[in-house]
Amino acid sequence: MRKVYLDHAATTPLLPEVREAMLPYLNELFGNPSCLHDWGDAAREAMDTAREQVAQLIGADADEIVFTGSGTESNNFAVKGLALAQQGKGKHIVVSSIEHFSVLHSAKTLEKWGFELTEVPVDRHGMVDPDDVRKRIRKDTVLVSIMHASGEVGTIEPVREIARITREHDIPFHTDAVAAAGTIPVNVKELGVDALSLAGNQFYGPKGVGALYIRKGVRIMPLLDGGIQEEGRRAGTENIPAIVGLGKAAELAKNDMGSRVKHLSRLRDRLLAELPAQIGHTVVTGHPEHRLPGNASFCVEFIEGESMLMLLNSQGVAVTSGSACTSKALKASHVLIAMGLSHELAQGSVLFTFGIDNTEEDVDYVLEVMPPIVERLRQMSPLYAKFVKTGKGGR
Amino acid sequence: MPIYSEKVMEHFMNPRNVGEIENPDGIGEVGNPVCGDVMTFYIKVKDNRLEDVKFKTFGCGAAIAVSSMVSEMAIGKTLDEARKITPKLVADELDGLPKNKFHCSNLGAQALNKAIKDYMKKQAKGGKK
Description:
Chain A is α/β, with parallel strands linked by helices.
């Protein structure tokens, strides 16, 4: 059976060049970069190179990059660390309602610690209006965190415009660029952000490693206390093989970005156009234009995402869904609900995210296996039966 | 490890008794799309026995497997026997359900029960049969 992996938003495979770059640091070059002997030197050198590679990917200086254990850690570090470092000035933070849980739940934790949280809404395409951010800024606002792009619906947010506003008010602005960095051009200087999160496993690097850009001069409180690794901002012996892999992946992403974006956009645009044309009552979620190149997300009416996912998997196609049934918490995706979708429609969520190894044939295959799966589930669905009989219940 | 037992997967991939019964003797509908699953059960009763049971389900893999299993367990049983089918019995027959799915997806027995009650209400009113 054909196997088609279309869940690159969850994680990407490791590129062979990345794996090769990592191997020596899993073997003979096992040293701890804090040590002053040859083993330590080799590790430190490797880390310096990786830091430079990551910095170049996002147009930062090397000393503005802190390595972390994941995108989630970068987001926790940014949101909690920036807010805590500023709490003398105020205790109000602003985030969007479609942030990743690592931002949203960090903000909720701050709420428990005495901060006030304001959520900025999004429109039906998942887009934040910079004016809505402006309206929510107060005298005591000490942090704004709005994602660069949504891995779930693909929408790319107006980060630069938001940064202009936060700078006017002299408020630190963090953007979660985990879904964007390494996938689309991201330049911290052009964007004007104060902090930016990224993660290796989103652009063909290893899991278990991320980075946080912190603009020079911006104060941040460490999450982890201990030794003085990462200039005292993140204690703990560094995960050198993963950091080396992240660096290599960043270098490749920078070099190949143009061709990757072109390839992914072509596959995405085909699926976005052809799937709804083949399957009635299917809506595209996310922004029609300002959209991540590999992201094709839909809601299929009258059926549920997990059963769709399982039947696609039985045909060798790996996807994900934002339906309530798919989540461990059994709640529909907060992103889809924030975009104003009904719970019923959100249940039909299905997300295809392309990677650089996918081909036109993969799109053909999805278009071949998907319609019968939807038809089969609709024949089983009482909601569809009701719709056919009464014409009611449709979107 | 997959989250579902082989038996759940088997019923999900090959659900028994999907569909509607024309002029059913009883209908039972439970659930709503907010919590995830909606199930409608249709029954045909003859001599106090479930002659036929069919269902339509909107929901996850577990919900579909549960519906299929309930229909299979119910057909041929007397109404009293069928009313003794509990969510726990259904889950056991399916070799277990994931913990977080036990309540939301395991509505099949309830839907069947509702269909039987619907039948009995119609009977009491002196409806058909």
